[in-house]
Write a structure and sequence with these properties.
The chain has helices spanning about 10-20, 30-45, 50-60, 65-80, 80-85, 90-105, 110-120, 125-140, 145-160, 165-175, 180-195, 200-210, 220-230, 235-245, 255-265. With about 260 residues, the protein is mostly helical. Helix 9 (about 145-160) packs antiparallel against helix 10 (about 165-175) and helix 12 (about 200-210) runs antiparallel to helix 13.
Length: about 260
């Protein structure tokens, strides 16, 4: 079905961005609300919103994972000329087209085109595009794989208060030997978690559980896992279940009812 087209994104899409990526908003990340806002934006005619919804359902962010629905939404965007919208300079459409080339939904997989559209978006100072360029350099093949380039683009994104850019900086400083720095990793995870990003909250739980660069604190780890779990983060749910199962952070008292609850989410 053809959608009514808009040339600029609407307030509901802006709200969806804040609920997906933080962006320094007072309420922080809430992916279920971002789904609602993006759905409203699509109903108002902003075509790239279809791909932002597809991202949520493709990965199960805040909603049930549904790759078939992600593909349908992606094909809807392509049939409604999202490439034309991107080529006319819309930075959100540009990053969305990059995702489509990455997933192979609606468009054939093409890593060169993926990077091209991410870079177009990033060069317009779009923090989502900047994070996507960083991600591409972190996982790219051949000459595109570069930890230093990934850090550069993640920092540009993170400094605009993009919670995923902040999380990715935390991850790369915590894992890549070329730039490993546990205290820097922790500081970026804290920045991201302060915006309620569930990925960062889960990783903070690991840091406090294992004592990675900080003194181990199982009670704090439990709280971090709980925050991630309550935002439907699968790793947070599993790690929280383990804590309840083993009685860790609970003075050794197991809570099998809570463990089963979170294991079965």
């Amino acid at each position: 079905k053809k959608q009514k087209k808009m040339s600029k994104y609407c307030k509901s899409f802006e709200k969806g961005l804040c609920y997906s990526f933080g962006l320094g908003s007072s309420h922080g990340v809430d992916e279920q609300l971002s789904f609602e806002c993006f759905s409203q934006a699509l109903s108002e005619g902003y075509i790239p919103a279809a791909v932002f919804i597809a991202r949520l359902v493709n990965h199960g962010y805040g909603v049930k994972k549904n790759k078939r629905e992600a593909k349908r939404l992606s094909e809807l965007a392509v049939s409604n000329n999202i490439i034309e919208i991107a080529d006319n300079g819309d930075s959100m459409a540009q990053v969305a087209v990059g995702w489509l080339y990455s997933w192979g939904y609606g468009l054939p997989k093409n890593s060169e085109k993926e990077y091209e559209y991410y870079l177009k978006s990033a060069m317009q100072n779009n923090s989502i595009g900047q994070n996507s360029v960083g991600y591409y350099h972190r996982y790219g093949n051949g000459p595109q794989k570069s930890v230093s380039e990934a850090v550069k683009w993640y920092e540009l994104s993170a400094n605009q208060k993009n919670s995923i850019g902040q999380y990715n900086l935390g991850w790369i400083y915590g894992h890549e030997e070329e730039c490993k720095n546990e205290s820097t990793s922790l500081s970026w995870y804290l920045e991201s978690a302060s915006q309620n990003d569930p990925l960062a909250q889960n990783n903070l739980g690991l840091i406090y559980e294992k004592g990675l660069g900080v003194e181990a604190n199982h009670e704090t780890a439990l709280e971090c896992y709980k925050k991630a779990a309550e935002k439907n983060n699968p790793r947070g749910q599993y790690n929280l279940a383990l804590m309840y199962d083993r009685g860790v952070g609970l003075d050794g008292e197991r809570n099998l009812t809570e463990a089963i609850k979170w294991y079965t989410k």
